[in-house]
Design goal:
- By secondary structure, the chain is α+β, with helices and mostly antiparallel strands.
- It starts with a strand and ends in a 21-residue tail after the last helix.
- The chain is globular and about 45 Å long.
- It has a 5-stranded mixed beta sheet with strand order 2-1-5-3-4, with helices on one face.
Length: 172
């Protein structure tokens, strides 16, 4: 067993872990952060994406001991004082999900994308989400959600939501 200490969603934690335990397993099994989804266990799908020291990583590809001393933000840690992060709000407003399985990873990757590029083009959004797979949506409303978030403070600022754009299949 190896002792690790890190900050997860703003809370300091310390635990003894098996050296081979994946960060995704640590977050889900030890800390109950089940919003971080185990999808493929091969780093292909991106469902397990979290932020480690401010950068998005696929937590199935990182050992918990590699996060020692670091700061992790999960999907549960994005909301502040009960208010959704602008990217979470945009996914809700633009119907950027269907089954929801990929959504936590998509949102975490989108937040990182918008941090680095606050006003991306549609092509830049598609390239920025390339390592995150969705089997349901065809990505149209996911891309719309990221572009909407970019226009409504998705780079980290809280913005008052204006009316959401009309999305395919969404009620008027």
């Amino acid at each position: 067993m190896t002792r690790i200490s890190l900050t997860v969603d703003g809370e300091k934690v310390a635990d003894d872990v098996e050296p081979r335990m994946l960060l995704v397993q640590y977050l889900r099994e030890k800390l109950g952060k089940t919003g971080t989804v185990i999808g493929c266990d091969t780093s292909n799908c991106g469902a397990c994406t979290v932020h480690l020291n401010g950068q998005s990583v696929k937590s199935c590809n990182v050992l918990a001991v590699q996060a020692d001393g670091g700061e992790v933000t999960t999907i549960e840690g994005l909301a502040t004082n009960g208010q959704l992060h602008p990217v979470q709000e945009a996914f809700r407003e633009c119907h950027g999900l269907q089954c929801g399985f990929c959504t936590p990873g998509m949102i975490m990757q989108s937040v990182d994308l918008l941090k680095d590029n606050p006003h991306p083009t549609e092509e830049e959004v598609r390239l920025g989400l390339e390592g995150n797979l969705c089997r349901c949506t065809g990505y149209h409303n996911i891309v719309k959600a990221v572009l909407y978030a970019a226009d409504h403070g998705g780079a980290g600022d809280r913005a008052e939501s204006q009316s959401a754009p009309q999305t395919e299949g969404a009620p008027a």
